[in-house]
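To make this tangible, we now present a fold written out as tokens:
***
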Amino acid sequence: MNELRNIAGNDRRSAYLRRRKTEFIRIRVFRIAVLILLLVLWEVLTRSGILNPFVFSSPSRILATGKDLSVSGALWRHVGTSVLETISGFVSGTILGILIAVVLWWSPAVSKVLDPYLVVLNALPKTALGPVFIVCIGTGAGAIIAMTLAISLIVTILNVLNGFNQTDAEKVRLMRMLGANRLQIFRKLVLPANLSTIVNALKINVGLSWVGVITGEFLVSRAGLGYLIVYGSQVFKMDLVMTSVAVLAVCAMIMHAGIMLIERATRTRFGGS
């Protein structure tokens, strides 16, 4: 009887895994199909004149422009500049934001004092600080990374701190009753319970870091994808603008895929906590 139950259980598990695999493949196929459909529609509309090819470019013209930039080496120089700045801002903003969130969770009094200031800073348009960064830091990569930090740091602090504060109060109370100190509560309960919150903060920071870098490059850079977009718009080379946007989308997608791998590894290691 037990053998029959085990066989039935294994069959159900195998069927469940097959359904999950089929669903995963189906979703991937539909995603690719939607992308291909949009690209084909875009090409057809521009070739037929329904969309102005000078303004909207087209996939074929974007590929041709990208090929020219790649052959000349300019594409890799600009992409490398933007990627380096984005990774620098992303890593520093994430680490610093998490550390500040830990400090604020550790000291509720300090958190209550700083909370309205964090809210105001988060609502403040960060581009307004661009001239300040340029004057204080200069027109190099430092000002661009500072702009990235200004955009992503406060969001990281607020999201992670909110996750820390939402940790099950009953479990926290139980650990205190058992004699756990604040460090033990953080290491054994709060941090493991908020790994998904931290991963979500990483996902958000990917987009915010690119926004910060491109905004900074609009203002001060002489290299990077943001510079290419500004230069292309100034000389009315919209193919260059759209190519830069397309490359930017690919770079952001690759970074997001990396975060998804981190999320998958975290779920495997900690059982989806």
User: Anything to note?
Assistant: Residues 17 and 23 are 10 Å apart (CA to CA).
